[in-house]
Amino acid sequence: NIPNTDLTIPASKIQENLDKLPQDKDAEIVLYCLGGMMSPAASADLVQAGYTNVKSLMGGINTWESVGYPLEMGP
Question: Can you give the three-state secondary structure of the chain, one letter per residue?
Answer without folding.
Answer: CCCCCCCCCCHHHCHHHHHHCCCCCCCCEEECCCCCCCHHHHHHHHHHCCCCCEEECCCHHHHHHHCCCCCCCCC
